Amino acid sequence: MNEELEERIRGYARFRGGTLRERLGYGIHGIVYVMEDNKNLGRMAVKVHGAGAPYRRERRVYERLADLRLSSLRGFAIPRALRFDDEWLAIEMTIVAQPFVVDFAEAYLDGPPEFPEDVWVEWEAEKQEQFGGNWTTVSAILEEFRRRGIHLVDVNPGNISFRQGGA
Q1: pTM score above 0.90
Q2: What residues does 150 pair with on adjacent strands?
Q3: How far apart are CA 61 and CA 82, in angstroms?
Q4: In CATH terms, is domain 2-161 a member of 3.30.200.20?
C-alpha cells in the first residue's frame, strides 16, 4: 500500500500544482509530506489517506477543531486544516513544531469506539509504557480532547510528540 500511496500523493501534488518535499510521516491510514504550493508560494503538510473511512473521521475531527477554534492544548500544537479533497482523500494542513498532537484518522467524535473493558485496560497499559514519565501529560491531553468530544485512539510518541530532549 505504501507504493500506491506514494503514487497517489505525487498525483495529488501535480493536481494541486505543488511540489512535494520531505516526508513527515506514514502509517496504516495514509502518508504525509510537506508540499510547496507553487501558485501561492506557501508550505503545508498534505496527507493522502488509503481509505475513505479514516479520511472521513479525520476530516470530521478537523472540522470540530475549527469550530472550537482549537490550535493547541496544554502547550501542544494542533495542525489547522486548510483544504479537504474528498476525491483524492487528501487533507492539506498547517505544519506544526514540537510539541504537537497530530493524526486524527483513528479519532472518534462524541464517544469512543466500543471495545471491551479488558481491551481498554491493555491499551492504557501499553500507552503508559510507550510514554513512560510523560504519560501523566499525555493522559491530561487525552482528557482535554475527550471533554471536547474527540476520542483519540491512535496514541503513540509519533502522534503526541514532546520537544526534543523532554517535555
Answers
A1: yes
A2: 109
A3: 13
A4: yes
Cell of 67: 469550530
pLDDT tier for residue 165 given thresholds of 50, 70 and 90: low
- CA-based nearest residue to 91, from 163, 30, 148, 4: 30
C-alpha span between 28 and 33 (Å, rounded) = 15
Output the nine-digit C-alpha cell for 29.
491510514
In one-letter notation, the amino acid at residue 23 is: R
Torsion angles phi and psi, residue 166, rounded to 5 = 125, -165
Q: 111-128 b/e with 16+ CB inside 10 Å = b?
A: eeeeeeeeeeeeeeeebe
Model pLDDT for residues 122-160, shown as the tens digit of each residue: 999 999 999 999 999 999 999 999 999 999 999 999 999
Instruction: Establish how many alpha carbons lie within 13 A of residue 126's alpha carbon, considering only the half-sphere containing its beta carbon.
Output: 10
Q: Are 152 and 103 in contact (CB under 8 A)?
A: no
